[in-house]
Amino acid sequence: MPRVVVVGAGISGLATAYHLSRLRPDVEITVLESAHRPGGTIHTERSDGFVVEHGPNGFLDGVPSTLELAREVGLGDRLVSASDASRKHRYLFLDERIRELPRGPGSFLTSSLLPMSGKLRMMMEPMIGRGPGGPESVAAFARRRFGRAAADVFIDALVTGIHGGDPELLDVRAAFPRLTRYERESGSVIRGVMAAGREKKRAARARGESLQPQRMWSFRAGLRELIDAVVARLPAAPFCGVDVESVSRSESSWHVHGNSQTWVADALVLACPAPIQARIMSQLDSALSDRLAEIVCNRIAVVALGFRAADVPRPYDGFGFIAPQNTRQDLLGVQWCSAIYPDRAPGGMVLYRALCGGWHRAEVVDWPDDRLIAAVGHALRSAHGIDVPPAFARIVRWSPAIPQYMLGHPERVAEIDRLAAGHPRLFLTGNSFHGVALNDCTANAKSVAGRVAESLAGT
User: Fold this and answer.
1) Same structural domain for residues 161 and 291?
2) Half-sphere exposure of residue 241, counting CA atoms within 13 Å on the CB side?
3) Exposed site from 11, 55, 205, 281, fewest CB < 10 Å?
C-alpha cells in the first residue's frame, strides 16, 4: 500500500488528505499536526451563548471550491449565508468616526472619502496605459492606475482587510492577481471588471440562471463544522501534538522525524506555514529552506467582545469597519459578527470581533489582555458610543498569522517550486504561496491531491 505523510492539519492539509483519499482509496495517509487539535487557524468556540471564530469568519462563493467541499462532506444543509446588510454596507474608520464605503457610482460621487480631484483621477483609470510588468507593489500599482488619494484610502483599506500588510511592500501580482490580469487583458482594471461581469452574466444565462451577487457563507455552528466533517471522512484521524523536526530521504522513501518517532512515506506533503516548512527542510536542502524562510508572516490578535444591545447607542447594520494601516490605529478593523450572522450572540446581546496587530503594529499582539480590550473599547466608543465594559471577552493570538506576499513573491515561489521538484514526490501547499483566503487553500489542496495521486500511479 502506498504511503503518504501530510504535515499540517489546517484546512490545506486536511483537504489535500481528503481529496487524495477519494482519488486513491488504496493509499495509507498519515496527517501530522503540531497543535493539540486539527484545523489550524479555523476554530469556532461557543461560550456563554456567543459563537466566536478564532480565525476566518466565512468564505465567499465567487470561487466554488469550499462550497463544493462542504457539500461533499455532507454539510449542504448546514450552510448559512451572511446577511444582505453585511454584503451591502461596509465602512472605514477614519478620524475617529465611521464612514461608509461607496456602493456604486452614485454613492462614490457623493462620498466624502475622496476630494473631487481624487474622484476625477480615479475615473480616468480607463485612459491610463498598461504598466511595464514585473515586480510592482500594490501601492505603486494603485497610484499609477487610480491616483494617490484612492490608493491611500481604498487600496490601503483593501490590503488591511485581507492581508493585514503594507501595500508598499506587497507584490500586486501575488496579492491581487486579478487586478494585474485585468490590466494586461483589458488595458484597464475598470474595463476588466466590467468585462468579467458581462462574462459571468453570459455564463449564468447559458445555465438558465440569473446572476446572483457574491455572498459570504459559514455553517450553523461556525467554520469548525467544516474541519470536523473533513476529519470524520479521512481514513485515519490526524495525529495531533506531533512536532515534525526534520525529514530525510532514502533511495525510494521519505522519512519524517518528530516526537522521537519516524514515519516512512512514498510521498510527502508539507501543508504547514512556510517558516515551519523552512525549518523542516533545513537539514536536507538548505537552499530550499532559505527560500521558504523568505516568506514571512504578520501577527494578529483576535479580540471578541460582547455587549448588551441596550448599551450600544449607535448600532450599525453591515459587515464592520476597517482602519487603514496608514492611520496606525491599534486595530485593523472590527467585524460586526452578530450583524453578519444573527445567531452569533444570545438574545439581547451583540458580538464584535476586532483584529489587532498586523505588519506595522506587531507589538500590539503582545499587549496584556486588559490593554487590548481597552484599545478596542476606545475604537468602539468612537464608532458606536459604547462606554461600558464588555459583558463577554475572548482573545486569541496568532503568530505566525497571515503570509505576506512581499515584492518578488511570484519569482520566489517559482524558485521554491524548482528546488522542490528536485526531490521526488515532495509537494508544498498552504496559504504561503498562491492565495491567503480559505477558497485559495481548498482549491490548491484539490490540485495538489491530484498531483500526488498522479505521482503514485506506478506504486
Assistant:
1) no
2) 2
3) 205
Longest pairwise C-alpha distance within the chain:
68
* 8 Å CB contact between 35 and 46: no
> In whole angstroms, what is the distance from residue 111 CA to residue 300 CA?
31
Single out the residue of 272, 380, 432, 340 nearest to residue 53, CA to CA.
340
Tell me the CATH number at 23. 3.50.50.60
Look at residue 76 and give its three-state secondary structure: helix
Q: What domain count does the chain have?
A: 3
DSSP 221: T
Give me the mean pLDDT over the 368-390 stretch. Answer: 96
**pLDDT of amino acid 457:** 87
Tally Cβ neighbours within 10 Å of residue 201.
12
| Closest to 236 (Cα-Cα) out of 72, 39, 35, 29 | 29
Do residues 416 and 428 make contact, with C-beta atoms less than 8 angstroms apart?
A: yes
Whether 171 is in a domain gets the answer: yes
pTM: 0.94
Cell of 219: 455553517
Is 59 part of a structural domain of the chain?
no
- Over the stretch 176-231, which tens digit does the pLDDT of each residue have? 999 999 999 999 999 999 999 999 899 888 888 888 888 999 999 999 999 999 99
